[in-house]
Amino acid sequence: WDVVRSMLRPAEPSDDGLVDLAPAKEIRAIFRRFWPDVRPLRPWIALSLLFVFVVPLLTAAGTWMLKVLVDDVLTPRDFSLFPAVAAVYVGITLLGGALGFVDQYLATWIGEQFVHRLRTRVFAHLHTLSIGFFDRRRLGDILSRLVGDIGAIETLMLGGVAQLLSAVVQVLLFGALLFYLDWRLALVSLIAVPGFWFAARVFSRRIKAASREAGRRGGSIGVVAEESLGNALLIQAYGREDAENSRFTAQSAGSVGAELAAARIGAMFGPLVELLEVAGVLAIVGVGIWELTAGNITLGGLLVFLAYIAQLYSPVRNLAQLSNSIFAAAAGAERIIELLDQRPTITAPEVPVDLGRARGRLELEHVSFRYPETPMDVLTDVGFSAPPGTITALVGASGAGKTTLTKLLLRFYDPAQGRITLDGHDLRELDPAQLRANIAVVLQETLLLDGTVAENILAGRPDADHDTVVEAARAADADAFIRALPYGYDTRVGQRGRLLSGGQRQRVAIARAMIRDAPILLLDEPTTSLDAEASRRILAPMRRLMVGRTTIVISHNLLTVTDADQILHLQHGRITEAGTHEELLAAGDGYAHLYRLHQVPNGARPRKP
Ligand code: ADP
Ligand code: MG
User: Which atom of ligand 1 is nearest to the CA of 397?
Assistant: First the structure.
């Protein structure tokens, strides 16, 4: 018994820091939650419900023909009826087969429609969430929810319901037939039912716990794989393959353990139920001999009775598996609900100020900010004003908060204190989409989309024609290298643009910013990935790009900043110096120091154009 008990124990919950699940939500709540995705499918579901009734009826009718064969053909040895009975039997079987086909295909079709709807809804929801959400989450976890857990909800809401319903229909139908054939035998056959009930009670709680744990461990495999394979280059460069393999092996083994624990419990239920079934069948045969002699049932009747008993017990046995998948599905539904419950922290006000095309006056007033995870302010009391069409340069050591400032200007986050205004309106009064439409960015980590070069430039302004694309590329000093690519502008750049060099990516990003033609320009270290020669070449196009736009440029390459209208020196999130190049040099503080440092290795004397 102890061995049995130990086999019934689910895997110990692991302590691997993954998001743990909330207690199982009520199945009813899950149904309410996902009903909108089911509603449009109602007519089809109604049609498929029809099959739930018709298909078992045909099965019962087919089996009934066995009774006719035994009692009316075999026992009286009268073969005159045989062709007719055989024809009916074949007819019923054919009809049952055809309807069974339609039934299965329809069920799958409904399920896929549901999955498609829900999947696209969750995906679109994820894109409404603010950047802060993606800072906190592990991508692999989100992916495994999007791919795996949505299927689980389908199992619960459609497949599971259909299975449950057809089990109920079968139990009622075959139960009624049994009583019709011989009510005494039918009563005898019920002796196994309390056994089924007791077994289901004992097992269901354990199955639930085990399948939750198995689902969680399965998800963590995806998380580890995504993180590891996404960093293949780094891992190979530092020879971390073995370490990564053993990390993955540990996750995989943990999942195997949890799956096996769940399978052990599920698999023990089957034989137990079978034992009960055999007991039931033997009891029926025992009493059946007596009934046969008393003439209460024919031999054919007894035969069909036993066949129906199997039809009655099998849905009961399936219910064990069903409860297994329902609990797995409930856990999956919780994970999806958790995603759907996330609300964007950055939202448009109810009545946003309509800016149209902004003039481009940016002002920061006493802005302080910290990320949720950071213990200290990343920006403290930052204030400056950037009049339309001027260039503001931000310089400072890495980690000073420069990139963070650009993220606030794009309203990926809101300041904790103070405010940022555009043309006099607090950014929080604007629709974020409209705000961002007024800004062109070249980010520090130049990211490209997995598409062609032309598509990447067009992302800046989707309605531009090809000539405009080429013009922008030429202005960004990118046209020549793009033409040299295997398919020119139609060359695919690969995931995140990794088929291009860093400098090439950056120039495509500059072309994208050029084509956007926005009144505000944010350049976050736009020349970091360029060599001295290339960054000198890009200066002229960048200056052209800046003309007439409010530009915030962050650069270590002080060549790009010397002619800015104002230079802000950021240190530990505070502006410590502000002024023009000449003023700051004359002051002889941090900026002057930076500038001297910068000149030596570069060997170039920056000039004013
Ligand atoms: P810079 O661009 O000047 O090099 P950043 O603005 O990127 O500096 O970073 C400023 C500080 O904010 C750093 O200490 C960094 O660790 C922290 N930081 C940056 N991004 C995040 C983030 N998404 N979540 C938490 N902390 C962050
Ligand atoms: Mg930065």
Answer: 3
Yes or no: is domain 25-340 CATH 1.20.1530.20?
A: no
> What number is the ipTM of this complex?
0.98
Average pLDDT over residues 163-168: 86
Look at the domain 362-602 and name its fold: Rossmann fold (3.40.50)
Spell out the residues 6+ positions from residue 573 whose beta carbon is closer than 8 angstroms to its own.
Answer: 377, 378, 379, 380, 382, 400, 401, 404
Q: What is the pLDDT of residue 17?
A: 36
| The CA-based dihedral angle spanning residues 220, 225, 230, 233, taken in that order and rounded to the nearest 10 degrees | 140
Atom of ligand 1 nearest to the CA of 407: 6
Sheet holding 566-571, edge to edge: 439-442, 520-524, 550-554, 391-395, 566-571, 574-579
Q: Which residue spans of the chain are classified as CATH 1.20.1560.10?
A: 25-340
Q: What is the whole-number distance in angstroms between the Cα of residue 119 and the centre of ligand 1?
A: 33
User: pLDDT > 70: what percent of the chain?
Assistant: 92
Residues 100-117 have pLDDT tens digits of 999 999 999 999 999 999
- How far does the centroid of ligand 1 lie from the alpha carbon of residue 61, in Å? 72
For residue 13, which phi and psi values (nearest 5 degrees)?
-60, 135
Give 556 Cα–ligand 1 centroid separation in angstroms. Answer: 16
Q: What's the burial of 129, exposed, middle or buried (CB within 10 Å: 0-12/13-18/19+)?
A: middle
Asked if 518 and 410 count as a contact pair (C-beta separation under 8 A), the reply is no
Q: Maximum Cα–Cα distance for the chain, whole Å?
A: 121
Of 269-278, 359-368, 585-594, which gets the smallest average pLDDT? 269-278
User: In the structure, which protein residues have their CB atom closer than 6 angstroms to any atom of ligand 1?
Assistant: 135, 371, 373-374, 378, 396, 398-404
Residue 19 predicted with pLDDT over 50 = no
Nearest ligand by distance to the CA of 400: 1
Residue 14 has pLDDT above 50, yes or no: no
Q: Give a three-class secondary structure readout of 405-434.
A: HHHHHCCCCCCCEEEEEECCEEHHHECHHH
Ligand nearest the Cα atom of residue 409: 1
Q: Is residue 10 very low, low, confident or very high in pLDDT (cuts 50, 70, 90)?
A: low
Sequence-ordered alpha helix ranges (H) in 410-488: 432-437, 453-458, 466-475, 479-484
The Cβ of residue 341 has, within 10 Å, a number of other Cβ atoms equal to 9
Q: Looking at the chain, which residues constitute the CATH 3.40.50.300 domain(s)?
A: 362-602
Confidence of residue 498 (pLDDT cuts 50, 70, 90): confident
Mean pLDDT of 7-22: 46
**Coil, strand or helix at 527:** coil
Mean pLDDT of 45-65: 91
Mutate to test the pocket of ligand 1, among 131, 133, 374, 569 (most ligand atoms within 8 A of CB): 374
